[in-house]
Write a structure and sequence with these properties.
This protein is mainly alpha-helical and 142 residues long. It has 6 helices and 2 strands. Strands 1-2 form a two-stranded antiparallel sheet.
Length: 142
C-alpha cells in the first residue's frame, strides 16, 4: 500500500485551490451513478451493479478531495488520503474506508479479471454500501 506522502511526491495527489463547485458536481455524479446501479441491479446486471456502486463511492470520495483542494490521479491514493485525513481524525469510520477499498478491488476484478462473475449477494452488498457511503459523505460535507 502506498503511503500518503508518496502519493504527493509521485503527483498522484496534488494540492490545488479548493473547488466547491466541483465538489457539488461530484456529488451529483455520484447520485446519478447510484441511480444507474439501482437500475442495473433491478435488471440483474450484477457486474454492472458492482462497477456502478464503486463509481458512486469514488465520485462521492472525490467530492471531499475537491472541497479540500486535492486532485487525484490514483484510486489507491484517494483512499489513503481519506484514511489519513478523515479516519485518523475521526471524521469517517475506518470500516467505511475499508469497505471502499474492498469494493475498489471487487470492481477491478469485475472489469479485468478472467474468472469473476458477481453474485446477487455481492451486487446487493455493493449497492447498499454505495448508498451508505454517499449518505455519509454528504453529511460530512454539510
Amino acid at each position: 500500500m502506498m503511503r500518503l506522502d508518496e502519493c504527493f511526491r509521485k503527483r498522484l495527489l496534488r494540492k490545488e485551490r479548493p473547488d466547491l463547485e466541483k465538489s457539488k458536481r461530484s456529488i451529483e455524479v455520484a447520485e446519478a451513478k447510484l441511480d444507474e446501479a439501482e437500475r442495473a441491479f433491478s435488471h440483474r446486471l450484477l457486474d454492472a451493479t458492482v462497477v456502478l456502486a464503486y463509481t458512486t463511492m469514488f465520485h462521492a470520495a472525490r467530492a471531499i478531495l475537491f472541497r479540500d483542494g486535492i486532485v487525484e490521479k490514483s484510486h489507491v491514493c484517494l483512499i489513503e488520503y481519506l484514511r489519513e485525513k478523515y479516519v485518523n481524525t475521526g471524521r469517517l469510520s475506518e470500516s467505511l474506508i475499508n469497505t471502499l477499498d474492498s469494493i475498489r478491488v471487487d470492481r477491478h476484478e469485475t472489469l479485468y479479471g478472467l474468472e469473476t462473475e458477481s453474485s446477487e449477494k455481492d451486487a446487493r452488498y455493493c449497492l447498499n454500501k454505495a448508498r451508505e457511503f454517499l449518505s455519509t459523505v454528504k453529511n460530512t460535507l454539510a
